[in-house]
Amino acid sequence: xxxxxxxxxxxxxxxxxxxxxxxxxxxxxxxxxxxxxxxxxxxxxxxxxxxxxxxxxxxxxxxxxxxxxxxxxxxxxxxxxxxxxxxxxxxxxxxxxxxxxxxxxxxxxxxxxxxxxxxxxxxxxxxxxxxxxxxxxxxxxxxxxxxxxxxxxxxxxxxxxxxxxxxxxxxxxxxxxxxxxxxxxxxxxxxxxxxxxxxxxxxxxxxxxxxxxxxxxxxxxxxxxxxxxxxxxxxxxxxxxxxxxxxxxxxxxxxxxxxxxxxxxxxxxxxxxxxxxxxxxxxxxxxxxxxxxxxxxxxxxxxxxxxxxxxxxxxxxxxxxxxxxxxxxxxxxxxxxxxxxxxxxxxxxxxxxxxxxxxxxxxxxxxxxxxxxxxxxxxxxxxxxxxxxxxxxxxxxxxxxxxxxxxxxxxxxxxxxxxxxxxxxxxxxxxxxxxxxxxxxxxxxxxxxxxxxxxxxxxxxxxxxxxxxxxxxxxxxxxxxxxxxxxxxxxxxxxxxxxxxxxxxxxxxxxxxxxxxxxxxxxxxxxxxxxxxxxxxxxxxxxxxxxxxxxxxxxxxxxxxxxxxxxxxxxxxxxxxxxxxxxxxxxxxxxxxxxxxxxxxxxxxxxxxxxxxxxxxxxxxxxxxxxxxxxxxxxxxxxxxxxxxxxxxxxxxxxxxxxxxxxxxxxxxxxxxxxxxxxxxxxxxxxxxxxxxxxxxxxxxxxxxxxxxxxxxxxxxxxxxxxxxxxxxxxxxxx
Length: 735
Ligand SMILES: Nc1nc2c(c(=O)[nH]1)N[C@H]1C(S)=C(S)[C@@H](COP(=O)(O)OP(=O)(O)OC[C@H]3O[C@@H](n4cnc5c(=O)[nH]c(N)nc54)[C@H](O)[C@@H]3O)O[C@H]1N2
Ligand SMILES: Nc1nc2c(c(=O)[nH]1)N[C@H]1C(S)=C(S)[C@@H](COP(=O)(O)OP(=O)(O)OC[C@H]3O[C@@H](n4cnc5c(=O)[nH]c(N)nc54)[C@H](O)[C@@H]3O)O[C@H]1N2
Ligand code: SF4
Ligand SMILES: [Mo]
Hints:
single chain, alpha/beta, 6-stranded mixed sheet, 25 helices, 17% strand, binds ligand MGD
């Protein structure tokens, strides 16, 4: 065991805060400040600070488990792996390769996500792979790709935020979901910039805002169109920019002009003067940004909604220019990298399309297989879960806990129980792992090396800091062992190295020439430079690039803009540029967008209602989200005493008027009933929420599970479910 401090990153959210880890004499691990990482400069939220608690064998899995006469019992690794190989082989023999499903996670490192996509396609031969990122930022990814030709969460580093003039933060509660990032917004205000927050609740983040707009859930599309209408009406468009750098303005303009401010007020509940004030604050400064998070994205029209916010940026000349732009605040630890390297149903590494013949040829060559042997695109996450037990008979799950986190969760739980065979790799016995036929205990974060890509598109090195406990193996070892068992005579295990750096070297080659090009990035560079922004092509094709390394923003462009932005000389990208090595691309689109003609595309979108409007039977809208002390399905954070003390269980946030109608006082149990089911949790009464809306966090299983209620209505493009709006009624419960 090493006993000095190892610089690494937090296991949880997409900020990927830097931290130092030091093993202590008593076997625990101490987190200390790592001030050299520019995103958090040493600051951590409570989750990051307490993350080592999940390393303890008190709460984690340290032995494989197999189901025997109905219960999970400890087993040897060989027995557990053999059982998985048997289960998957039987399904394949009886029902064909597409009857085997794979479900991944945006928390997995790039190496794992890459290997999982490859494993599904070349070992299992299945098209049925998707991952929880579909539930996360997929609508923003779809809209970003349509508009800019490329999806990278933020096209600029967070450090640009304090220097812009105004930020509209749409449906992000970053004071709770990414607390150290609040610093950038405080600095923005200190510099005289303005912060506008759009959220149906007066959140901790909204309390920081100069202007808080509180629309009805699911109406952000109308709000953005109303603002664009005013931009046009008040003559605030940037005609030269529209002419030079965009396409499709006429249709988008016409659609916006149909959304009169008074009409928008009726839909959103945001008063016209507030709308005007927002437009003024956004348009007056020279630079401005719009950042979206899950509020506007997790809607059955999330892609169009994000498109409408991008339209606002394009019409005012605020994209692809220094200190201006649209960005999505990606959520999971590797939410960005996890969507680039092939665990998504329609995708190959390097953010390539599975339907693109050239991409198939390139990746098949790296993998040493026939391009025609690669399956086509499969189902999206919810559709995959919905097909369990029918078309999909066996599932391999790595890095997600859908029993708690999937929409219409009681149904998803039923589908999971209907499987012939379920194998789960996890660090803890999650609610989903508890239903498995085989559970494999895997190494985590501090015990293994790997890369993640944070919300800025900054590729980072997470380093192994401690020795894992006896009995656990890494996800990469699991894939290696399963490939050996499932590959028969083919020796496929050789295609699944267990050394993360070896996997990364292959990922570099597979991504070379693709939109998310990592070919110029090495572990050595990541260690020395504190992260590298993609695209970062290998200049001489030394990573084995097939085809052209088509860069969306040249190193030169990034460099000259850095100079314009007065980036400090210690910016690592600048040092390496002198060696002819690509410096990486902190800022995208500065001279052209990544579309074929280099122009950004307006989205000709119009407002439409939420999939389930309130009615007499279900008169209230439910929206869902997060609290600061719990992470996601809570599988990890519900095992940390300090976090449980801070956030012990679910609640229903509601307005006093609604509470009075129900006869409920603070803390009384309240039943929330939707067409999918019923959940019960204590009332938390606050004037900080709209009276027509209730809010529940989704971190808990059981009676208070918010996802029992949510509506799996999918966005037609991104296939994102409508987590942020469904119709419910409230009932008093005798306590
Ligand atoms: N503490 C904590 N931090 C996390 C996570 C966690 O689970 N816990 N998860 C990580 C992940 S994966 C993600 S994706 C991010 C998510 O980060 P955020 O997007 O900040 O989190 P949410 O709470 O889901 O949603 C943000 C806000 O959207 C608002 N909202 C609800 N409906 C609407 C709507 O219709 N329109 C608008 N404009 N707003 C609406 C909610 O009131 C909420 O305050 O957080 C990351 N960080
Ligand atoms: N109602 C509602 N539902 C939501 C949302 C919402 O806002 N509202 N948000 C959605 C969003 S944005 C997201 S991202 C999802 C997230 O929800 P989930 O996909 O359930 O995410 P986690 O709870 O992070 O689950 C990750 C699991 O993987 C395990 N794990 C961690 N690291 C590793 C590893 O390295 N290897 C393996 N094999 N396992 C590991 C963890 O212990 C945990 O059990 O929830 C979605 N669900
Ligand atoms: S903000 Fe995110 S990355 Fe930073 S310490 Fe908290 S959970 Fe970890
Ligand atoms: Mo997420």
